[in-house]
Design goal:
It is built from two helices and 17 strands. By secondary structure, it is mainly beta.
């Protein structure tokens, strides 16, 4: 009964946060496409420059590449929270923002130990969170006009993954994700000489399935647990089902709808369509001495120039290129008398050419990552990761984002789940 009660706790945790908060970041650039894209990185991956396509880890859930799941030989539960401090700057203005919330939940268990492992979890797929204001005049007049643009929400994924080892060193995997959630965007107008505001509100609700494939190969170089690892992932480009609601609203000066007797004017309601998600490929290579050190590099290429919005329009996105390099070092995994020697130390660098193109200028992102994994009782872990970076620039018409992110992750490993008891 102990195993069943543990499963019930994990399932309850996952479904209790089925409304997983997508507001873990704030960015004016999330106005484009489906917003800021979230990767499959867990805290240890983030600390190593967001690498992990080729590097198996027996202590943490192998989430970036489903083909690495067979290396999870025990039951593992992962969860994390994140906070972000960000400074936004233009050539004339600046502001500070602080956000945070739950990062992800993940769970994996071996079906056949060291051969077949299954996993499921919940994490953001994209995040939309922005607000901007433009001051001007009503066309043809000198009457002041204030226009406010806001966006919120995002797409969440509830995923199931399975990884199977085919031969010594070679494994494959599949992930199926149910994408759900909604993106709400508003354009609100306020004319100074009036006592109300008017708003154009649109809401795209996502509900469909996306698939990812993975493969990994680990080549033993010497008999001292040294390996050369290769990994590849492929996210299929697919049309995602979307339902749109669009309405016009009249609001009072506080921004609330004026009266129940003044309902919004529906332009469209539950209009069914689709959004074209692009294909993405990730390639990783790593060199490691297991339970000692790892050096790895990943590159991810996403064809976001193929993205088409609900109206079938090309919104001018670029292809994505993300490069990460990182490493970890564990002095002595079995140093019973020296705790610091059992701590894993991690560091990494990453560069990303984002899909965003503003005023014909590419928006690039560069970050420095580092962190530690602290062993807890038995084989569980507490992970800390930090990320310092910069995206965009203060060139005219652009916005620079300088950010500091902190991540706290908990990994609960248990090798007693699903073991048949000899005595009740």
């Amino acid at each position: 009964m102990l195993g069943i009660s543990r499963i019930a706790v994990v399932v309850a945790l996952i479904f209790s946060v089925s409304g997983l908060s997508a507001q873990n970041t704030y960015s004016p650039y999330s106005v484009f496409g489906i917003g800021d894209l979230n990767s499959m990185d867990l805290v240890p991956n983030i600390a190593m420059g967001r690498v992990g396509i080729s590097t198996p880890n027996p202590f943490h859930l192998n989430n970036k590449n489903p083909a690495l799941l067979p290396y999870n030989r025990v039951v593992v539960f992962e969860s994390a929270v994140t906070v972000e401090q960000k400074k936004l700057s233009t050539d004339a203005l600046s502001q500070d923002n602080f956000t945070g919330g739950l990062g992800y939940l993940g769970f994996a268990f071996p079906v056949v130990r060291e051969v077949w492992t299954m996993s499921f979890g919940l994490m953001p797929y994209s995040i939309v969170n922005y607000e901007s204001r433009e001051l001007g005049f009503v066309p043809g007049t000198e009457t002041p006009l204030s226009t406010t643009y806001t966006g919120s929400g995002g797409v969440t994924q509830a995923y199931f993954a399975s990884g199977i080892k085919l031969t010594k060193g070679l494994s494959v995997g599949l992930r199926a994700a149910y994408l759900f959630g909604s993106i709400k965007q508003e354009t609100e107008f306020f004319v100074a000489e009036t006592s109300f505001r008017s708003a154009d509100v649109s809401k795209n609700a996502f509900s469909d399935i996306a698939f990812s494939l993975g493969a990994a190969y680990s080549l033993e170089l010497r008999k001292d647990e040294s390996y050369l690892n290769f990994g590849i992932t492929y996210d299929l480009g697919e049309n995602q089902t979307v339902k749109r609601l669009e309405q016009l609203e009249r609001r009072d000066l506080s921004g609330d709808r004026q009266s129940p007797d003044d309902p919004p004017y529906l332009v469209t309601n539950n209009l069914k369509g689709s959004v074209d998600f692009p294909a993405t490929v990730g390639i990783g290579i790593g060199f490691e001495k297991r339970l000692k050190w790892t050096v790895a590099a990943d590159i991810t290429l996403g064809q976001w120039s193929d993205y088409r919005n609900f109206d079938g329009e090309d919104v001018g996105l670029n292809d994505l290129t993300a490069i990460g390099i990182g490493g970890s070092y564990l002095p002595d995994a079995f140093a019973v008398g020296n705790y610091l020697n059992r701590v894993t130390y991690m560091v990494g660098l990453r560069y990303e050419k984002t899909p965003y193109l503003v005023n014909d200028q590419e928006i690039n992102d560069f970050g420095i990552n580092f962190g530690v994994t602290l062993p807890l009782q038995t084989i569980s872990r507490l992970s800390l990761a930090f990320e310092v970076g910069e995206r965009g620039s203060t060139d005219p018409g652009l916005i620079q984002e300088r950010y500091f992110r902190a991540y706290l992750g908990i990994t609960v490993n248990d090798n007693k789940w699903f073991i048949r008891r000899k005595f009740d």
